[in-house]
Write a structure and sequence with these properties.
heterodimer, A: mainly alpha, two-stranded antiparallel ribbon, 11 helices, 4 strands, about 5% strand, B: Rossmann fold, six-stranded mixed β-sheet, 10 strands, about 35% helix
């Protein structure tokens, strides 16, 4: 009985930790979904740009004695720039109806960014500073890790700010107008290329924060993080429903919990297998995501 | 005001417009009619810049527009509505109008901060007026997709007006309307003319076109086969021949 109780506490703790870490996936998923909403296309270079942003943030902290908030800010700024650059190079000049070309261009972008990171760091992992690493809050038999809580809070604040901009400001309204009806948007005087580059930049901003959050929660940065983060981000986007922001948030937290649960019961070797199996289950039974009645790309 | 100078538009081997010349005077209501497939919609798309012409120039108030993308033409004063309504389905009625109103940058008296959040009282008042003009005052906070068909048409028209156009292209605005709605639309078009807006009306509904327009051009196979006031057009042999060939469609 006592063993069972202990086990139950451990599992709940694992899932809770997973939810906190899942906020990074949620942010990455929101980025994918924003871009998909705006253009109906996937930006495969997105998570790569996020990690690259975190690297530059880390580099800055090595040269200057920078606080962690500053590192996050630098990551965010660099990823914003990368988002803009990826739009200009991989999307802007490719005909809109040619989906495969833009997809492959952005896959190229992902590998290009990856190679840049390997070149700059010689491919070896580097330690990334966390915040409140020693803090630990106990609630009954459960505990909350300070660094994870910090990451989670940053995720919440970023998401709330994004939602505010999207739903309450003129800029957000223009972005949503382009996503919903691009020809009519042009006839409301909106420059689509400008709005799309802003969407990519905002997504990049979130990505940079997510990249730094991932690195801060894991404690290291490594070039081998880009592809798994891309894949997890895509899984979150599909499970949440392409183009749905609430879906991406829920799916991100869910995937975080799900993978941590399987990490606990099956170990690190098998964990990602179950995450991918989850993707297959969704593709078969709920191909449009959790909120499958969301047909609109908003 | 608007000059279409020997415009051609080819889609592959199909000549949708073939060396077409038109001239629209300031302040008039100019009708464009023609059988299905005669190039009317292509003409609208070329004027507002959704398609670039294969050859020829669009000249608006003395300026050649051929290189300007759609959003720049809108800012010069060319707006339109669509045959198949194109609203922003998941924005509210009010937001649809707000997005359009944002294209106009003539407010200097209020801080951009207020405009950024849609709180400028000038903008609010203007949108209020638009809502009233289109009888949508009580639907302001509903999603555009939840409106009835007639309301959607009125909203689309109001949205085009919110961009403060000087030339308004109406692409079959009466399609799917009943007699009452057409009469209502007739009144709206006249009142827009009184506000100083030049209107190009593309329409199949003859009772509307013949009643409201000052001049009419008839297109067939991408070329103009006749031009004149409604009476002249009704008695024109070439027009009757073109229409008889397609009589079931019209």
């Amino acid at each position: 009985m006592e063993d069972f109780l202990y086990e139950a506490v451990e599992i709940i703790q694992t899932i809770w930790d997973g939810i906190l870490f899942g906020s990074t996936y949620a942010l990455i998923g929101i980025g994918f979904t924003l871009i998909f909403g705006a253009m109906g296309k996937l930006n495969m270079a997105y998570a790569g740009a996020a990690i690259a942003g975190a690297y530059v943030g880390l580099a800055v902290s090595l040269f200057f004695d920078a606080t962690i908030i500053f590192v996050f800010a630098v990551s965010a700024v660099i990823s914003t720039l990368l988002g803009y650059i990826v739009y200009q190079t991989c999307f802007r000049f490719i005909p809109t109806h040619n989906h495969l070309a833009a997809l492959m261009a952005s896959v190229g972008g992902l590998f290009f960014i990856d190679e840049l990171i390997v070149l700059a760091t010689l491919g070896s992992p580097m330690n990334f500073p966390g915040l409140f690493e020693d803090a630990y809050f106990e609630i009954g038999p459960f505990g909350i890790r300070g660094d994870l809580l910090f990451v989670f809070l940053i995720g919440i604040v970023s998401t709330l700010l994004l939602l505010y901009v999207l739903f309450k400001t003129r800029l957000g309204m223009a972005t949503r107008a382009v996503a919903q009806q691009d020809i009519a948007a042009q006839l409301c005087g909106i420059n689509i290329h400008r709005t799309n580059s802003i969407t990519f930049s905002i997504a990049g901003l979130l990505g940079g924060i997510a990249g730094a959050m991932t690195a801060a929660a894991v404690g290291v940065l490594s070039p081998v993080m880009t592809v798994p983060l891309t894949i997890k981000g895509l899984i979150v986007t599909v499970i949440g429903g392409l183009g749905s922001i609430p879906g991406a948030i829920i799916a991100g937290l869910f995937v975080g919990a799900f993978e941590n649960f399987f990490l606990y019961i099956r170990g690190i070797d098998e964990r990602d297998m179950y995450v991918v199996a989850l993707l297959f289950i969704f593709l078969i039974f709920r191909p449009n995501g959790i909120f499958s009645k969301t047909i609109n790309r908003d | 005001m608007l000059k279409i100078q020997s415009i051609s538009k080819h889609f592959g081997g199909v000549k949708a417009l073939n060396e077409l010349d038109l001239e629209v005077e300031e302040g008039e209501i100019y009708g464009v009619i023609g059988p299905n497939g005669s190039g009317k919609s292509t003409l609208v798309n070329v004027i507002c810049g959704i398609f670039l012409p294969t050859e020829g120039d669009v000249i608006f108030e003395g300026q050649i527009l051929s290189e300007n993308p759609t959003h720049q033409r809108l800012k010069k004063g060319i707006a339109r509505t669509f045959q198949n309504i194109r609203l922003f389905p998941n924005l509210t009625v009010w937001q649809n109008l707000w997005v359009a109103r944002n294209s106009v940058e003539d407010i200097k008296t209020e801080s951009s901060f207020y405009r950024w959040f849609g709180k400028s009282s000038i903008v609010k008042k203007e949108i209020e007026k638009m809502l009233e003009f289109s009888n949508l005052g009580n639907r302001a906070d509903e999603l555009a997709s939840s409106l009835a068909f007639g309301e959607q048409r009125r909203l689309e028209l109001a949205r085009a007006l919110a961009t403060k156009p000087r030339l308004l292209l109406l692409d079959e605005p009466a399609a799917g309307m009943n007699k009452d709605e057409i009469r209502d639309l007739d009144g709206r078009i006249r009142s827009m003319q009184l506000q100083g807006i030049t209107i190009i009306l593309i329409e199949h509904v003859m009772e509307l076109v013949m009643g409201v327009t000052d001049r009419i051009a008839v297109l067939n196979f991408g070329s103009k086969i006749a031009e004149g006031n409604p009476q002249e057009i009704q008695n024109n042999d070439a027009v009757q021949e073109a229409y008889l060939g397609y009589s079931e469609d019209d």
